[in-house]
Amino acid sequence: MKALKSQRLHIGFFGKTNVGKSSLVNKISGQDISIVSDIAGTTTDVVEKSMELLPVGPVNFLDTAGINDKSELGEKRAEKTSKIISRTDIAIIVCDYNGIDNYERDLIEQFRELKIPYMIVVNKSDVKEIAQDKFSELKNLTDNIILTSTQNDNELVYKFKNELVKMLPEDFVNPPKIAGDLVEEKSTVILVIPIDKEAPKGRIILPQVQVLRDLLDSNCKVLSVKESELKEAIEGLKTSPALVITDSQAFKTVSEIVPENIPLTSFSILFARLKGDLNAFLQGAKAIDTLQNDDKVLILESCTHHAIEDDIGKVKIPNLIRKKTGKNIVFEHYSGHDFPDISQYKLIVHCGACMTNRREVLSRILKAAQAGIPITNYGITISYCLGITERATKIFNL
Ligand SMILES: Nc1nc2c(ncn2[C@@H]2O[C@H](COP(=O)(O)OP(=O)(O)O)[C@@H](O)[C@H]2O)c(=O)[nH]1
Ligand SMILES: [Mg+2]
C-alpha cells in the first residue's frame, strides 16, 4: 500500500554545514533502490527524499542546510529550523570529531522539549577520532550514538538502521490497524473461520477476535462463516465483499469459492504485516525453494513457553517446508529475546511474535539482512508452502 506523506516517518538531519549530513542521507538512501522522489524544498533550507527504508517502512528524509549563511539573522534562521523541527518525528544530529557546541546543544534542548527522539552521528572518523571528553559529553546526552565515516564505514547503513529501529515511535512500530486500513469504511468483510478439530472448544482464537474488533473500529460490516457457508454468504450480499479473510488452512477451498475479483487474504498474513515486515518476509520465503539436503533452518521464537506456537514451530512448519522442497532439511530451534549466532543457517523462520513487539522483530530482520540470511515468519511460510502468497498479498499493493 502506497503510504500517504503524512504516514511517512519524517527523519530530520541537523547539524552544521560540512559535517556530512547530505553525504549521510545519500549513503542511506543509495543503499535502498526505491527512492520515490527527490524534491528540493520550497526554500533551499531543506531537501526532501521519500523512500521505503527496509525494514522500517516509508520514510521522508529532511536534509537541512544547517548554518552556513553567516549574514542571515539568527532569529530568522531559528525560525526556519523550528519549522523543520515541527515536521520531524526523529532527529539525527550530525557532527564530526569536533563534537558539539552551543548550536547543537540548543537543537537538542528543543528536541527534548518536543519529545522528539534523537540520535547523534559522529562523522568523519576516517579523518580523526573524536576526543574522549567530547565523546563523554555526547554519551551523557543519549545512548543513541554512532561513530562513523560516510567515506569508509561499510557498516554505516546497518548501524544507522539499527539505532533507528530502537527509536521508532510506538504508533509507527505498532500500526494501529490490522485490516481496517485495507478497505473503505463501512464496507463488508467476510471472515472465514474453520471450526475443525484444531479450533479451541467454545471460542474463536485471539487473532480472529482482534481482526473482528479492528474492522468494527473501522465501521465495517463483518460476516463470519465457516467454509461451508461461504458461497451462500457471498451470493446473499447485495454488493461484493471488499475483502475475504480466511484461516490459511482453508485457503485452497476458500480461493476456489471466492471469485477472482474479490480480494482475499489470510489472518496469518495480516499478522505477518502487523508483527514484522511483509516485504522482507515475502523475500525471505523465496529461499525455501533454494534449500538443499542437510541445509539448516532456524526456527526462531520470541518466547520460551507457548504450547500452540510450539506445535507450529516444531511440527507444522518443518513438515510444510519438507513437503514443499522434498529435501531433507535440518531444523533447529531457538527461543528467547537475544539473538543467536545465525551464520550457519540458510533460512530463519520467525514465530508469529504474538508475545513480543514489532520493534524486536524489525531489529531481527535487520540483523538477518546484515548477515545476508533470508528471514521469514510462520504466517508467510504457511502461505508460501501452500502456494497462495501471490493472491493473498494482492490487497497490500506491494
Ligand atoms: N573525510 C571525510 N569527508 C567527508 C565525510 N563525510 C562527508 N565528507 C565530505 O565533507 C564535505 C561536506 O559534506 P556534506 O555531506 O555536503 O555536508 P553537509 O553540509 O553537512 O550536508 C564534502 O566534501 C564531503 O565529501 C567523511 O566521513 N569523511
Ligand atoms: Mg548538505
Word description of this protein:
- This protein is α/β, with parallel strands linked by helices and 398 residues long.
- It folds into 3 domains: 5-173, P-loop containing nucleotide triphosphate hydrolases (Rossmann fold); 180-262, Rossmann fold; 277-385, Rossmann fold (3-Layer(aba) Sandwich), CATH 3.40.50.
- It is built from 15 helices and 15 strands.
- It has helices at 21-31, 74-85, 102-113, 132-141, 156-167, 170-173, 206-217, 227-236, 251-257, 267-274, 278-285, 307-325, 358-371, 378-385, 389-393, and strands spanning 9-14, 35-40, 46-53, 57-64, 90-95, 118-122, 145-147, 188-192, 221-225, 243-246, 264-266, 296-301, 330-335, 347-350, 375-377.
- Strands 2-3-4-1-5-6-7 form a 7-stranded mixed β-sheet, with helices on both faces. It has a 4-stranded parallel β-sheet with strand order 9-8-10-11, sandwiched between helices. A 4-stranded parallel β-sheet has the order 13-12-14-15, sandwiched between helices.
- It starts with 8 loop residues before the first strand and ends in a 5-residue tail after the last helix.
- Residues 1-5 and 32-43 have low confidence and may be disordered.
- Guanosine-5'-diphosphate is lined by residues 17-23, 66, 123-124, 126-127, 149-151.
